């Protein structure tokens, strides 16, 4: 579905003294339809630069991007427009994508107008209502300004906005890192739910190996512009090969196993979390798909919602 072939990007900045950075050096990967690839690495290692090159927001110095079998690097703005619909990006700061002077309704209809998806206002309104329902926010927010909504609502709205064009691929650049841990878990569960419902393909960028470990099918570890190790999530987390991966895995120690075990003994069921089972460790909240415990399944059926452990 999405392929990056030997992508490289070099930056040169500074006025008096030039500063050179090889932000990305020869990075290649492929993501199959419906798959989630995670990219993990420390701050400044080049993760967002990859995302920008994939989206066509920056041209690679070398290499190419392929989407759905077509090479999309080097296309003109006009040619890129059709492909943009297929691939959307969700950023770390939702507020940066919302015009502070305009109501949410404006930001929601904008992509549909630019890409001429629906011509009639009524159809646009209908589509927005469907999407708000899907991401779990009230249409009452449409008449508010960005400063009048919460961070979690803003990120859900950004997800709905990205979906207005029926994309096949979502690039998620630290989409939950600015959110409170409990909201973070709900947004992550929502993203996983949407992937299953809409058959989406994700590239998920984060420095948080714990979240990636739960969310991704495969993970690539990045350091100083290069992929140092790639593999199935299980292998990367439990059997890391590269010293940098080991360091990164060690920094997340036992992935909150003790707290998880204790949480399993004492789950609570909040309203409307609709999805999977959530466990909250002292620092993080994350979900665990399915449950082998029949009592839990019964509770899910009854409440229509997931088990969430209370914070310790
Ligand atoms: N427009 C630019 N001009 C000059 N240098 C840049 C530019 N954009 C990024 N860089 C540099 O390229 C490197 C990679 O930046 P990038 O934003 O991709 O890192 P990152 O891994 O996403 O970091 P973070 O996790 O902190 O967001 C950094 O050293 C950064 O300072």
From TrEMBL:
<feature type="region of interest" description="Disordered">
    <location>
        <begin position="289"/>
        <end position="312"/>
    </location>
</feature>
<keyword id="KW-0547">Nucleotide-binding</keyword>
<comment type="similarity">
    <text>Belongs to the ABC transporter superfamily.</text>
</comment>
<keyword id="KW-0067">ATP-binding</keyword>
<dbReference type="InterPro" id="IPR017871">
    <property type="entry name" value="ABC_transporter-like_CS"/>
</dbReference>
<feature type="domain" description="ABC transporter">
    <location>
        <begin position="2"/>
        <end position="249"/>
    </location>
</feature>
<dbReference type="Pfam" id="PF00005">
    <property type="entry name" value="ABC_tran"/>
</dbReference>
<keyword id="KW-0813">Transport</keyword>
<dbReference type="GO" id="GO:0016887">
    <property type="term" value="F:ATP hydrolysis activity"/>
</dbReference>
<dbReference type="InterPro" id="IPR027417">
    <property type="entry name" value="P-loop_NTPase"/>
</dbReference>
<dbReference type="GO" id="GO:0055085">
    <property type="term" value="P:transmembrane transport"/>
</dbReference>
<dbReference type="InterPro" id="IPR003439">
    <property type="entry name" value="ABC_transporter-like_ATP-bd"/>
</dbReference>
<dbReference type="InterPro" id="IPR003593">
    <property type="entry name" value="AAA+_ATPase"/>
</dbReference>
<dbReference type="InterPro" id="IPR050319">
    <property type="entry name" value="ABC_transp_ATP-bind"/>
</dbReference>
<dbReference type="GO" id="GO:0005524">
    <property type="term" value="F:ATP binding"/>
</dbReference>
<protein>
    <submittedName>
        <fullName>ABC transporter family protein</fullName>
    </submittedName>
</protein>
């Amino acid at each position: 579905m999405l392929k990056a072939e030997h992508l490289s990007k070099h930056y040169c900045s500074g006025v008096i003294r030039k500063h050179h950075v090889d932000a990305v050096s020869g990075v290649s990967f492929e993501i199959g339809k419906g798959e989630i690839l995670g990219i993990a690495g420390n701050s400044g290692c080049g993760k967002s630069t990859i995302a920008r090159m994939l989206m066509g927001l920056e041209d690679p110095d070398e290499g190419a991007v392929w989407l759905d079998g077509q090479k999309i690097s080097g296309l003109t703005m006009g040619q890129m427009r059709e492909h943009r619909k297929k691939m959307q990006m969700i950023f770390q700061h939702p507020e940066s994508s919302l015009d502070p002077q305009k109501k949410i309704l404006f930001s929601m209809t904008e992509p549909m107008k630019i890409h001429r998806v629906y011509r009639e206002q009524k159809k646009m309104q209908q589509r927005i209502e469907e999407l708000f329902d899907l991401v779990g926010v009230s249409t009452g927010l449409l008449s508010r300004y960005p400063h009048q909504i919460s961070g979690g609502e803003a990120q859900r709205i950004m997800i709905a906005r990205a979906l207005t064009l029926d994309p096949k691929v979502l690039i998620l650049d630290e989409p939950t890192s600015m959110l409170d841990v409990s909201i973070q878990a709900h947004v992550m569960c929502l993203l996983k739910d949407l992937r299953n419902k809409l058959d989406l393909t994700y590239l998920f960028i984060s420095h948080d190996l714990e979240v990636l470990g739960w969310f991704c099918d495969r993970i690539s570890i990045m350091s100083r512009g290069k992929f140092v190790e790639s593999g199935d999530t299980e292998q990367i987390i439990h059997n890391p090969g590269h010293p940098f991966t080991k360091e990164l895995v060690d920094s997340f120690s036992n992935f909150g196993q003790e707290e998880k075990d204790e949480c399993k003994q004492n789950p609570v069921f909040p309203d409307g979390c609709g999805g999977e089972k959530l466990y909250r460790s002292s620092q993080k909240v994350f979900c665990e798909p399915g449950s082998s415990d029949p009592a839990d399944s019964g509770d899910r059926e009854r409440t229509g919602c997931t088990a969430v452990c209370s914070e310790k």
